[in-house]
Amino acid sequence: MADDTTPLNKYITLPKVELHRHLEGSLRLSTMLDIARKHGVTVPVSMLNLSGLVQVQDKDPLTFSNFLEKFKTLRLFYKSPDVIHRVTREAVEDAARDNVRYLELRFTPVALSRAEGFPLHDVMDWVITSAGEAAKDFNIKVGLIASVNRHESPELAEQVAWLAVEHQKRGLRGLDLAGNEAEFKSAPFHEIFKEAKGSGLRVTIHAGEWGPAENVRDAIENLGAERIGHGVRVLEDESITALAKERGTTFEVCVTSNFQSGVVNELEKHPLPRMLEKGLKVTINTDDPSVSRITLSNEVQLTHEKLNVSMDTLKKSVILAAESSFLPEAEKGELVRSLKSELAV
Ligand code: HPA
Ligand code: ZN
Q1: Could you tell me if the CB of 209 is within 6 A of ligand 1?
Q2: In 37-158, beta strands by DSSP E
Q3: At 324, is the pLDDT very low, low, confident or very high (cuts 50, 70, 90)?
Q4: Around Cβ 194, how many Cβ atoms within 10 Å?
Q5: CA of 102 to the centre of ligand 2 (A)
Q6: What pTM does this model have?
Q7: Domain extent at residue 106
Q8: Measured CA distances, 154 to 27, 197, 209, 235 (Å)
Q9: Given this model, what pLDDT does residue 6 score?
Q10: Is 209 a catalytic residue?
Q11: What is the model's pLDDT at position 123?
Q12: Is 2 part of any domain?
């Protein structure tokens, strides 16, 4: 949810589940301005100028480097524990307002800790506490995933993975590998992800987005991915498509993000419908609602109206997202049952 001016969307009435949303890509523009004014962040304090730095614009180059560049500016805002509390709370509130019933929110501890040198442990604690409080206050279920970036150090990733394992009891469910897939291999992270999985963390990997289908195989076989962030390039290789199908891998597809970061040249030609035809498990997600200036309801609308996916299939994808969530079995069963009954699927 970009800001308070976002028009209401009729798909808001559909109860939804989101598996792929980054906290750092979910900051309201109005909150960023407020933080910039209060904390003296050295960015423009007019909405128009700030938007260009942290949100994709119509005139922007549609490239992954332009997309990732926004996160460099976004790192400047995490100036105090209160800021981290506020942005976490608002991200949960915005999802609840969009009728998301279960949000699996991922956050990048290294990004949140960087501006002020906060210990990773504290940052994790703040996000977990705020997300839990917000979930109660806004009547939404929230699970958390810790993200590490391919383009940052494996040593930091190891620390994050270790802390994530320690925080499992408090609702931290999984580990994610994000960042610059076009220029950085996953090999330095293989062992970290294997160990994390062995310790009970669930695994989702950004792959086949800015890198080839082979990265989807790598994510499944070498990193233990149960879910793939994006993965839309999987269709470039039939054997990897077959592997994902056989393993029951769920794809967290983010249509607008893919268009804005240059994965697809035309929205209407997005491979999502072909992924469905191939029998892959496809879910609909925002990735970074503020950076992309979208809501999950917008993405449902786009998928239905521009990609011609039926509402029946979209309802099934909500159930599939719940089934693919990293919730403990009993909680997951409850969520799936209540959504099935509400959606009459
Ligand atoms: N890919 C990789 N890293 C990211 C993304 C993405 O789509 N969004 C935020 N960090
Ligand atoms: Zn992502």
Answers
A1: yes
A2: 100-107, 141-149
A3: very high
A4: 14
A5: 17
A6: 0.96
A7: 14-340
A8: 27, 16, 21, 29
A9: 56
A10: yes
A11: 98
A12: no
